[in-house]
Amino acid sequence: MDFLTILRILWDRLAAWVTVLAGLIAVILGIVGVRDNAYVAAQMPYVISGGILGLFLLGLGATLWLSADLRDQWRVLLEIRDQRDAPAEVSEEPTISNAR
Amino acid sequence: MNGGNHPDTPWRAGEVTSVIMVNLVGLVLILAGYLVCRATAEPSRVQLAASIAAGGLVVTLAGNTVWLFGNLREVTRLRRQVLLGPAPAAPSSAVVSGAPERPAPTASVLVSSPSMSLYHRPECLMVSGKAVKATSLAAHRRARRQPCQVCRPDAEMEVATTEATG
User: Which of B60, B73, B106, B135 to mutate to test the interface with A (most CBs of A within 10 A)?
Assistant: First the structure.
């Protein structure tokens, strides 16, 4: 499987990882920036760009990941429903093979 | 899935647009707060900028939470549909009593295996992939097996019994 195919299938999980990593980097840079400044007024841009933007990115990553999980569940459930709703073959044998 | 839904996703096109817009609004608010904060050292304006940025974060988190709960609701609905099955055309007795709408079980369609303590309909997901035998209801009861609570093979019989006893 080539990289583009993986990217197409797992785009939401890759995006989630990238976003979470970006969020962690932003938070770390924010901490470093705040630590190096003694004045609150000078710290605030770092709090906003590092802390709040980092939390935003972490939340976005978590949303993408959970959304991907829900979509996978949805697909599997749809498959099960379609297989179940398909006309079943009735067997006269006493033992029923119920494999799907 | 209903008409507006994407074929293999639990969300609709409008919902995707909404959640993207909410995230963009939140991002713009955060960036606006950052720019205002960077441009001034006046405490009141810095406080305002921080509030704007925090508001942006709250907007996004709320929007994403609503989006996830919406998806979860759709998945739960489909899961319930898969587990309990569709509602086929029911006999009138089931409609009157409000019981689940399922075909009445017969002796040939109840399945189980010697190691099971429950009996099921053949299409029940709880016996999916398992080697089971079709046995009569009386045989299942003699073996002290209970009806499955997922496929509820006894639902129709309870209705019939209830109506017969008045």
Answer: B60
Give one DSSP letter per residue of A14-37, joined into a string.
Answer: HHHHHHHHHHHHHHHHHHHHHHT-
Q: What is the mean pLDDT of residues B54-77?
A: 92
- The set of residues, in sequence order, having a beta carbon less than 8 Å from that of B23 and lying 6+ positions away, is A60, B60, B63, B64
Asked if the model's pLDDT at residue A43 lies above 50, the reply is yes
Residues of A in Cβ contact (< 8 Å) with B25 = none
Q: Which two tokens stand for residue B59?
A: 């907007």
> Is residue A50 exposed (0-12), middle (13-18) or buried (19+ Cβ within 10 Å)?
buried
Q: Report the candidate in B70, B157, B110, B122 with the shortest Cα–Cα distance to residue A63.
A: B70
Selected residue of B2, B6, B8, B135 to mutate for chain A interface (largest A Cβ count, 10 A): B8
Q: Which residues of B touch A45 (CB under 8 A)?
A: 34, 37-38
pLDDT reported for residue B28: 95
> Rounded to the nearest 5°, which phi and psi values hold at B88?
-75, 170
Gap between the Cα atoms of A71 and B23, Å rounded: 20
A7 versus A62: the higher-pLDDT residue is A62
How would you classify the pairing of strands B118-119 and B146-147? parallel
Q: How many Cα atoms within 13 Å fall on the side-chain side of residue B46?
A: 15
Would you say residue B144 has pLDDT above 80? yes
- pLDDT of B1 strictly over 80: no
